[in-house]
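User:
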Amino acid sequence: MTETRAGFVALIGEPNAGKSTLLNRMVGAKVSIVTHKVQTTRARIRGVAIEGDTQLVFVDTPGLFAPRRRLDRAMVAAAWSGAADADIVVLLVEAHRGVTAGVKVILEALNERAGGRPVALAINKIDKVKADKLLVLTKELNDLYDFTETFMISAEKGHGVDTLRKWLAAELPKGPWLYPEDQIADLPLRMIAAEITREKLTLRLHQELPYQLTVETENWEDRKDGSVKIDQLIYVMRDGHKGILLGHKGETIKAVGKASREELEEFLGRKVHLFLQVKVRPNWLNEAERYSEMGLNFKDGNK
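Assistant: Predicted structure:
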């Protein structure tokens, strides 16, 4: 009888280091929000991958950065909590940015928080620098922290990802699988649907709207014909934000709704009827219920 293995792998790093892209590449499906903007992952999103007889449960944590607001603090707490719960931690560092001040802060914190668990280094976006620079960066990082193993990868293009996944699979503890074989994520579908719409909003609005919006799936109705009706609320903080979000004659919200619906249909494999409503809630960043919907702990945002 073949022995199975299973365990949790936390992906940590600065915002935009490529954690969500790596998670999606490992799982082979899109389970985490990926945009060109930083700090897009708010909750720890688990994606499940199979490598041989090993089930790898990836935890894509929010980027680690200097928090300024309650939401920032809750996100950073979620990131470190994800690392603390994992069997193995993988730190992603962008090859072209190197050892930034933010990376140094994470390395210092790892000395306190890693708790003896293996920490692998994944230098990402290796296609952006020359080989000699990669060697210098590898030495510099390993001098700062005693990594169990170092990998050179491009999460976007897939280079080195299989090697990293095979190593992780061999390092995880022996034991039964934690999730059914055909499950790729443990986020509720309602939350995945909200994340997809939030991603489309972020991509569409670029710099126009700050991070002061959130999306919640208010209603999910499975219909007899096999389709699903999804009602979502988009909370913004000001009337002006609502105007930007709606766009001229409702063009922006229509485009976002169409893009989100198409991706949801592909993800769910069935017809989706998506209805979006925009509401102004000036204080949503200080409402515990909003944090629960995002999978964050409201109290973690306390100073």
